[in-house]
């Protein structure tokens, strides 16, 4: 009988094994049975063209909702429809490591300038004991510049080397949550009335964000059974970032827009909000993993036997790209950031392990949750490589008997037509990127808009080297038990 350790290790191997099996099988079949591979790649490209159309439809739908949402006076609607709105307590968690005061100040300034009354917002800023000198400097700046501007500012120091945790955002937030629990208990607050928002410290919220969040929380029939996910835009330093970083930033924002409109596979990502009751019921954000921002959803989903969801917020929060002091370091930062996000593959063994034990979740829900998580990582790792490289391999290595077939002669034309159709998705992305692009800083000349269009020519290269490869890297580490720690993305603004 397998031990628990062995069983879990097998679960960790499976995601990477499925990805490597796909790539290796594609290469082997291209040499052994090139005609089979040609049939497969044509069918796969047709499937992907349909996926591109599907993606574009929901992307446009979500963008329209976003444009409508930012025009609404959500505070006025909140006060009109929910007279007891002041019973809700908005608490913002800002975990901090080595970010500069300029970045922190920009975030706090955005919160203070919200349409939601800042004197009703509670800040929890948690720094690290292993960066104590820097953290003390930040604390002094916060007290000097923001004392009296919020309902309260709680400053916590996350100790080093606490048991059963790894250094990172998750352990920082977890510690702050349990410290805040003491504060909330002393105040006699109902956990159901506490809305917590966990934001990266470089997050600049839209002025309407907390008003919209509180409205949607009040509107929800069971808000303690839902997380609330805003649109994530990586545009704080977008104009100053290299083209590859901009493309990947847009790609992440587009994926979030698409997911918000779909709902069926929406999980929390990066900045998110939820009831403090749900947080306490599931034990707080995970302190021993890298991908705590999405794991918290699965923790709640399992705790409530599948009776948990994510409510979309069509109000954005803005974050930084992984820009550094120079071009090369920026690319390295981007690679490691993408690898850290792809490390979310650790949710697959977590789900396999817990779904096996949980008999209360319907098997259909189990299958859908596991499929979406697994298929997402599989597609992330293999699609770009299959379409651009492996899919062309049988055309290069096929023998004379295959080369004389009608299918072989027509395949390049078929693939060209399919890729031309798929390019419509690229056109949609290019146009959408201009629509969500922040206003051009005066330091940049108008002709840089041309660069914003031409940069999309780099998309195939970007998808392979800064999307597929980091994902393969992450799942391969997981396969061999070489666990990744939390890599902090160094970010820079001018």
Question: What distinguishing features does this structure have?
Answer:
8-stranded mixed beta sheet, single chain, 494 residues, alpha/beta, globular, 18 helices
| Helix-strand topology string | HHHEHEHEHEEHEHEHHEHHHHHHHH
Low-confidence stretches: none
Query: What is the terminal-to-terminal distance?
Result: 59 Å
SS summary, helix count: 18
Shape, per Cα inertia axes:
globular
Rounded mean pLDDT score:
91
Number of strands: 8
Spatial strand order of the main sheet:
3-2-1-4-7-6-8-5
Q: Using only CA atoms, what is the Rg?
A: 24 Å
Percent of residues in β-strands: 5-15%
Oligomeric state of the chains in view: single chain
Helix-strand category: alpha/beta
Q: What percentage of residues falls in helices of 4 or more residues? A: 55-70%
Biggest sheet record = 8 strands, mixed
Question: Care to describe what's here?
Answer:
There is one protein chain. By secondary structure, this protein is an alpha/beta fold. It is built from 18 helices and 8 strands. Strands 3-2-1-4-7-6-8-5 form an 8-stranded mixed sheet. Helix 2 packs across helix 8 (243-262). The model has no long low-confidence stretch (mean pLDDT 91).
